């Protein structure tokens, strides 16, 4: 559920292109060469994610990505146009990969408690202590950090983050079917912010993965309690449920018997 999860004219984000620039058409590495198929494209995106997790966004170099993917730099430029396009597509690749490792099972109708358990599991999977999850989460963190200095990358992340919040609100809907849309969106945004913060602390070694997942479960439980309407207290046999007194302005004149007492008196 991150997981979801490019840039121009900011700090160093295009520095590598200035150093490497795409090859001229017709030269030794012609950008008009055949694309190499979807496997090559996926390999390039995976290599970009690994490089980003190791050295950050500013340390990303197209030549390094090409070498790791075992393709030419021309093929990278063929598929993604420039370094900005490579970053933008890597962002989508990270989101797709997070979707695969966090989704517990096939989507489908769920009763509220089943939907809650599935959502708990999905959020907890963001803290799996495996190379793939750590790499994905680290690359996301690097992109968020770079967005502080890069307005265009900030826009890309805002769109990806908005998609994630909407997806999380959709997952909360079957958990609390009566909750208004605004409340679902607010809960989804708060959970997203917490997930990002916990992920940073986990990757920094400040929180064990299990503890981070437990904190996430607790926050989800609190949000669900707020989204679900309170259940009326069960009445004892022969005793009607207690009705709260009306507000001061609605109370009957002094000397009369309030109707709520008359209606709820035990006979």
Q: How would you describe this protein?
A:
- Helix content is 60%, strand content 0%.
- With 267 residues, it is mostly helical.
- α7 crosses α8 (151-172) and α8 crosses α9.
- The chain is elongated, with a radius of gyration of 26 Å.
- The model is unreliable at 3-35 (pLDDT under 50).
Provide a quick synopsis of the model.
This protein has 11 helices and no strands.
Cα-atom radius of gyration: 26 Å
Tell me, what's the shape? elongated
Into which percentage range does the β-strand content fall? under 5%
**Structural class label:** mainly alpha
Please give the share of residues in helix: 55-70%
Query: What is the H/E order?
Result: HHHHHHHHHHH
Low-confidence stretches: 3-35
- DSSP strand tally: 0
Quote the distance from N terminus to C terminus: 57 Å
- Major β-sheet annotation: none
The chain-level mean pLDDT equals: 78
Query: Helical stretch count?
Result: 11
Question: SSE layout and pairings?
Answer:
Elements: H1 15-20, H2 37-55, H3 62-69, H4 73-80, H5 83-102, H6 112-124, H7 131-147, H8 151-172, H9 181-203, H10 209-227, H11 259-264
Supply database-style keywords.
60% helix, 267 residues, mainly alpha, 11 helices, disordered N terminus, 0% strand
